[in-house]
Amino acid sequence: MGLVVQKYGGSSVSSAERIKRVAERIVATKKAGDDVVVVVSAMGDTTDELRDLANQVTPTPPGRELDMLLTAGERISMALLAMAIHSLGSQARSFTGSQAGVLTTSKHGKARIIDITPGRISAALSAGSIAIVAGFQGIAQDTKDITTLGRGGSDTTAVALAAALKADVCEIYTDVDGVYSADPRIVPTARHLAEVTYEEMLELAACGAKVLHLPSVEYARRNQIPVHVRSSYSDRPGTMVTGSIEDLPMEKAVIVGVAHDRSEGKITVVGVPDRPGVAARIFQAVADAEINLDMIVQNVSSADTFRTDVSFTLPKADAPAAMAALEQVQDELGFTHLIYDDNVGKLSLVGAGMRSQPGVSAKFFSALAKAGINIEIISTSEIRISVVVRSEDLDAAVHAVHEAFELSGDEEATVYAGTGR
Amino acid sequence: MGLVVQKYGGSSVSSAERIKRVAERIVATKKAGDDVVVVVSAMGDTTDELRDLANQVTPTPPGRELDMLLTAGERISMALLAMAIHSLGSQARSFTGSQAGVLTTSKHGKARIIDITPGRISAALSAGSIAIVAGFQGIAQDTKDITTLGRGGSDTTAVALAAALKADVCEIYTDVDGVYSADPRIVPTARHLAEVTYEEMLELAACGAKVLHLPSVEYARRNQIPVHVRSSYSDRPGTMVTGSIEDLPMEKAVIVGVAHDRSEGKITVVGVPDRPGVAARIFQAVADAEINLDMIVQNVSSADTFRTDVSFTLPKADAPAAMAALEQVQDELGFTHLIYDDNVGKLSLVGAGMRSQPGVSAKFFSALAKAGINIEIISTSEIRISVVVRSEDLDAAVHAVHEAFELSGDEEATVYAGTGR
């Protein structure tokens, strides 16, 4: 008998009907002989609705109280799910993050899991129950206040619980049946991936593939928890995230796919005096505002003016704060002005195969060139090449690269209706 | 500097606007120099909406999970209220029943408070914060599961917290400005009561006055906590519930008012063999179904048949279960049949003055007789006379008794809009 942790996202439990269907799947897993722990998100748009309610009261709710408010969402979905399982004749008990022993840092809205002490979960399993755990939430180890983990937090809860309980697998149920070689909404012939390594999944998640969030993949890799990304609307096998690129046999080290991302904007700092330390001061100012930069490019300095331009990308939501932080150091640093451009898109090619196959970069850039696409920023890792292009060129760029690397599958991808994750 | 516990019901916090208004009142109390602990119910109809959601999943939700679900309601209102106070520049921290140390029995949906260990509340007050506590909920002392207290539970939470924290007063804010000598919707000239004793309030609450629930008044009396029932829409003084009838000076021992109740039905057990122990068996069968009877009458036995009829009143909601329990013992007890009558109403006259003034009963029954009202059951206590009449006669009966005892005030009662409590 094994132990399976299953995670269901908000769209999988968006109504009483869907909750009942999810309950049937859970009970079937239990009846097949495994112990089951379920991590559940808030129903559908509940979290956004609660955020709206907070905004009606104040534009700047304190983090502690916002977390208290938002955690009501999973409380509702987990209790309903436990009821639905109960009505099918199986035992189920729901647990808040705090009851499940999810200990976090105290940074409200963006807490990190420090440890899980799942004593009550183990006890429920021993008593023959299915345990339902609220995703996305925990209790701060120092202040004992309720915290939330930020976007995608329920995935992290699931993987962390799987690690703490030494589960055999963590199944992430969503509205697509796994990871594809490209977004099937852009490339209908994108290939379904049966398996990817942790490292490749990390790159894909960091580059815009929305099927898994970065922290959950990091947690899975660190604890060697196999993560199975599956559809809650079908029984087809999904994508298994497991193993390291270091252990891949040569024939399995391939190019896995093309990710794209429209969530970032680009800031250009124009007329930066070209002397040591100025670039560092620019990035320090942005870091002090707790903003993470993504890709960076610095132009060649002008021989006439000894000035240069520095561009970087960052999440669009962080752009106003970054602009404000930079304006504060404008006099000190002496740059001439700032340009914000939110009409950019990022494309990334990912795969362990880059390490062994020569000529990947050449093929990549020549595909983009043939498609007439202008490149603004380039960055690479051992298993990834990323470029920033005009937003309107992004779909064509995805097509061009996907085709050049012959990533298409034999059949059209199945795209499920749904609101995404 | 004193300590005030304030409780706001669901209609007082039914929207973001109302929450902001309540926050202003709370901050004003704090600025006037008192420490403030606030107990809050779920917003408006939230609890009913959550119940509906549960019913969409299953008609018979397990109590543990239903309590988990319903407690999301106060979590939302208390967090929003803390945000609203924060936006007015004061500090506020919200606490669930569990965090506030509300320890209860484990009877889900009807838990009783065993003790309160308000360490975190005291710490928040010491730190200069206003403490917001979820009403209606607690944590079971033995199972550590989340519980709810049943209807009116937020009042009990407030009074119990006031007792545990040794507060100077517990203010219950509702949509009327206190207790009246009759329901102003029936008797527009009903008099506002500035003060009533615990015993009188207990009788009024037990007899249908909805402004306070019975368990909260019992808790207040046991712990000698003055309870001030006030309107959340005005600054008028409300009704102070305090003191015992034993300590009342003669001139203050008066008839305080007329309560009425349409929430009960009447069951008649017809043709009961008139032998010792049969009546006891009837009431035992009903008690075994965990149903509380209210008033009881047994007819004079027929000389011909040695059979009698036994009638009793009980909450309408409990009638089906009581009928089923009685049908199960019909063969054993040998009664002929059962009649259920839900077209009854109960009127009660309450006041410590009954103990000292002779002729109260005579005046009471003569007023009903003059109004041509037929009486079906009578019961009395030291400070109360209750009768069951036809439901359609109830308003006329209230008027007749209220007038006979000259209970009207000098001005028309102010009746506030609102959905009741």
Notes on the structure:
- With 421 residues, chain A is of the alpha/beta class.
- Chain A has 2 domains: 3-174, Carbamate kinase (3-Layer(aba) Sandwich); 246-421, VC0802-like (2-Layer Sandwich), CATH 3.30.2130.
- Helix content of chain A is 33%, strand content 24%.
- Chain A has 13 helices and 20 strands.
- In chain A, strands 3-6-2-1-9-11-12-10 form an 8-stranded mixed β-sheet, sandwiched between helices.
- In chain A, helix 1 crosses helix 4 (72-87), helix 9 (278-288) packs across helix 10 and helix 12 crosses helix 13.
- The first copy, chain A, is globular and about 80 Å long.
- In chain A, 49% of the residues are buried.
- The A-B interface holds A 16, 19-20, 50, 53-54, 56-58, 60-62, 64-66, 68-69, 71-73, 75-76, 78-80, 82-84, 86-87, 92-94, 99, 120, 144 and B 16, 19-20, 50, 53-54, 56-58, 60-62, 64-66, 68-69, 71-73, 75-76, 78-80, 82-84, 86-87, 92-94, 99, 120, 144.
